[in-house]
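FAQ
Q: What does a multi-component entry look like?
A: The components come first, one per line:
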Amino acid sequence: MNAGSLPRSVALIGAGGFFGTNLALYLSPQIEDVRCFGLSQSFPDAMRAIRWTSGDIASSSLVEVLAGCDTVIHLASTSVPGTDLEISKDAEANLMTSLHLFDRCVDCGVRQVIFISSGGTVYGPSSRVPIAESAPTQPITPYGLVKLTIERYLEVYARLRGLDYRIVRISNLYGPYQNIIKMQGVVTSFLAKALRNEALEIWGNGSIVRDYVYVEDAVEAMVAVMRYQGAKRIFNIGSGVGTSVNQIVASIEKLLERKLKVKYRLGRAVDVPVNILDCTLARNELGWHAKTGFLTGLEKTKYWLSMQNIICRGPSFIR
Amino acid sequence: MNAGSLPRSVALIGAGGFFGTNLALYLSPQIEDVRCFGLSQSFPDAMRAIRWTSGDIASSSLVEVLAGCDTVIHLASTSVPGTDLEISKDAEANLMTSLHLFDRCVDCGVRQVIFISSGGTVYGPSSRVPIAESAPTQPITPYGLVKLTIERYLEVYARLRGLDYRIVRISNLYGPYQNIIKMQGVVTSFLAKALRNEALEIWGNGSIVRDYVYVEDAVEAMVAVMRYQGAKRIFNIGSGVGTSVNQIVASIEKLLERKLKVKYRLGRAVDVPVNILDCTLARNELGWHAKTGFLTGLEKTKYWLSMQNIICRGPSFIR
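Then the predicted structure of the entire assembly, as tokens:
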């Protein structure tokens, strides 16, 4: 372990979403200068006390956010609309904007970029689980390929422009501030539906296995990465445990102490059948591991959903 | 070997440069419908009988070239001007234009794209030589990273859009139609300087080793790739022989039967020390191997340079 102090100033780019909201709320009491930047906020009420600048990465307000900033956490990710994804538009919206962000980081003298990558997609289907950082990277989706390409451009920026970086390959996050309206994340959306006594829809036979990590655990991993002084650049951050969709349902049933209604639909072929991350490197180098068991994480998420339900009064929010 | 017939119609995109000119001149007598597209021609006199359309990939004239076309060979590559390369501009000029080309290929019903990648840069410095196609790809330059990223996007286009593809990772080409004015390629430019009795400048101690393949050999490899019916997607195309800069000088001295003047300059650190391709897969799958020995290739290049010199009368061309 090579732990230093936290950075003096941090900018969160793409801070209005699920992970950004959690990070902003956790870091703000600990770091004096936390600046949040993004297109919009999913939970403006929660972010009221946070220093916030609205804009996209091409806008001049980005430079104001980056000026004099020590560490940048790059969380921005855009979903290109349309049922049939336009691959080149996705690259323009996600890859090119990332490179523009890195250009501005170089211009503004930012010391380090921490990039939130995707442990669930950059490795692709070929690796044996659990997957270590050294495994081959063979993404099969535009999303995974964009994440991997951004990672590789960070290496080039480090080499040619002296921009320090870390890459955090997070598995499937769940927990508070996940956007239920957009049905982000199977764990939180299933839990929300179960609380409303709605039937759950499962695509395929429910055997697809993912590594679900509770968002607070991932936030703590980010703090460890910010403090880290060692030589490793890429970290898997996950629970290290595989959970099938059917096991999620069983766990929610256990938590709520009742049977749930489940409808099975024909599966989508693009899904990787199993993804579980090997997080040994994070344990050894960062002194971090996921502490929250799945049932505990579910219970905390249920509590948050209930609070939201009370605050929002009725079903308009949890949808 | 799985050899079929040549495609009915071929479009060469970025056809005005060194390899494109060679390909166009070789393919035109064999394939009735060869369409060449590019920004400009390095050797317009040589290309007089070739069907040519000027334009960039964003222009509407591209669609006219691709319409009804069976196979597209993607050779286009843009050097972004400026001494200090802007990484994101390079990605915009080379990666994004490639994705736009692939979009148009999908729109126009093109069956197969053959992409000219870079055997000298996509592997990076970590691999042991000779390097097979299965070696890790760790490019350290923006040029190599763009080539690798285009390769990976082709996989995604094949999976999501049904666009068939092959990738040809060519080593260092030399031979006729290499642009001596731009000092493209150490072999041809050294030979041109030697013929003019000028001193050669070597950056470093001359120990850097590359795999130089004669351009006609690489053109024959492209024909074999176009005929290929098998399942492999990526082929190394090189001589399989390593030649140091000092060995190039020695070979030119042997060819010209005299000593050359050489000035050694302080070396550039970015260069990979050794690159030699393992071309066993091309031999087994395509029935291809590089036939032209280095001295023979030098002699043919010398002959071409002499002819150019006679045609162009004087030193203005060979510069």
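Q: Is there any commentary attached?
A: Sometimes. For this entry: The first helix of chain A runs from residue 18 to 27.
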